[in-house]
UniProtKB/TrEMBL annotation:
<dbReference type="InterPro" id="IPR029058">
    <property type="entry name" value="AB_hydrolase_fold"/>
</dbReference>
<dbReference type="GO" id="GO:0140896">
    <property type="term" value="P:cGAS/STING signaling pathway"/>
</dbReference>
<dbReference type="GO" id="GO:0005829">
    <property type="term" value="C:cytosol"/>
</dbReference>
<dbReference type="GO" id="GO:0160049">
    <property type="term" value="P:negative regulation of cGAS/STING signaling pathway"/>
</dbReference>
<dbReference type="GO" id="GO:0052689">
    <property type="term" value="F:carboxylic ester hydrolase activity"/>
</dbReference>
<dbReference type="GO" id="GO:0008474">
    <property type="term" value="F:palmitoyl-(protein) hydrolase activity"/>
</dbReference>
<keyword id="KW-0378">Hydrolase</keyword>
<protein>
    <recommendedName>
        <fullName>Lysophospholipase-like protein 1</fullName>
        <ecNumber>3.1.2.22</ecNumber>
    </recommendedName>
</protein>
<feature type="domain" description="Phospholipase/carboxylesterase/thioesterase">
    <location>
        <begin position="14"/>
        <end position="226"/>
    </location>
</feature>
<keyword id="KW-0007">Acetylation</keyword>
<keyword id="KW-0963">Cytoplasm</keyword>
<dbReference type="InterPro" id="IPR003140">
    <property type="entry name" value="PLipase/COase/thioEstase"/>
</dbReference>
<comment type="similarity">
    <text>Belongs to the AB hydrolase superfamily. AB hydrolase 2 family.</text>
</comment>
<dbReference type="Pfam" id="PF02230">
    <property type="entry name" value="Abhydrolase_2"/>
</dbReference>
<comment type="function">
    <text>Palmitoyl thioesterase that catalyzes depalmitoylation of CGAS and KCNMA1. Acts as a regulator of innate immunity by mediating depalmitoylation of CGAS, thereby preventing CGAS homodimerization and cyclic GMP-AMP synthase activity. Does not exhibit phospholipase nor triacylglycerol lipase activity, able to hydrolyze only short chain substrates due to its shallow active site.</text>
</comment>
<dbReference type="InterPro" id="IPR050565">
    <property type="entry name" value="LYPA1-2/EST-like"/>
</dbReference>
Length: 239
């Protein structure tokens, strides 16, 4: 448990914008993956990088740590879990340490001149769960959050934080395959409806027949949502 956030600098893989950098996107991988692994996977599904004229895409890699669902084996995971279930309590100690480490990553973007409302955070599976904790508990000033094939536990600290929230919350863009055998579709759906009941504006897109996987249609929908949340200079002239 001795991970002081000051000592952790996450490895990362970055896709730089083709033009002037005016927004940033942080994309968190699922358990056992790496930033480079997620970038490569997306590239295979889309047949090209997720790349933009003005948005820098950052794929951090989670630290290598003991993971209880693997009987304490080491894995690249954002936090620990007692088990993969919607009903069990969250391992808040490890989640909170990582919220701090990722908040430092956001601060780095802000120091380089990117406003909070020009930053999006999201992820696949466990990465989506991490992104929801980060945005709704620590960084309600970001442009939006996305969660693919993901869920929050029933008693999530995110829900508790939102009961006390006032002001505008980042919009949530959520996708889930109906054939997901690892994170059941119903968990994703339930997460979405609880967040909506707590005042989050949400989109929920279901993908028939898709397993715990990324699909091209989903990544294309995500790309348009990203551009809608983080428009480039042309689209921003009327702001």
């Amino acid at each position: 448990a001795g991970m002081a956030s000051g000592s952790v600098r996450l490895r990362r893989c970055v896709v730089s914008p083709a033009g002037r950098h005016s927004a940033s996107l942080i994309f968190l991988h699922g358990s056992g993956d790496t930033g480079q692994g997620l970038r490569t996977w997306i590239k295979q599904v889309l047949t090209q990088d997720l790349a933009f004229q003005h948005i820098k895409v950052i794929y951090p890699t989670a630290p290598f740590r003991p993971y209880t669902p693997m009987s304490g084996g080491l894995s690249n995971v954002w936090f620990d879990r007692f088990k993969i279930s919607i009903d069990c309590p969250e391992h808040l100690e490890s989640i909170d340490v990582m919220c701090q480490v990722l908040a430092d990553l956001i601060d780095g973007e802000v120091k380089s001149g990117i406003k909070n409302n020009r930053i999006l955070i999201g992820g696949f599976s466990m990465g989506g769960c991490m992104a929801m904790h980060l945005a709704y508990r620590n960084h309600q000033d970001v442009a939006g959050v996305f969660a693919l094939s993901s869920f929050l536990n029933k008693t999530s600290a995110v829900y508790q934080a939102l009961q006390k929230a006032d002001g505008v919350l980042p919009e949530l863009f959520q996708c889930h395959g109906t054939a997901d055998e690892l994170v059941p579709y119903s968990w994703g759906e339930e997460t979405n409806s609880v967040l909506r009941s707590l005042g989050v504006s949400t989109q929920f897109h279901s993908f028939p027949g898709v397993h715990h996987d990324l699909s091209k249609a989903e990544l294309e929908k995500l790309t348009s949502w990203i551009l809608n949340k983080l428009p480039g200079d042309m689209e921003r002239q009327n702001e």
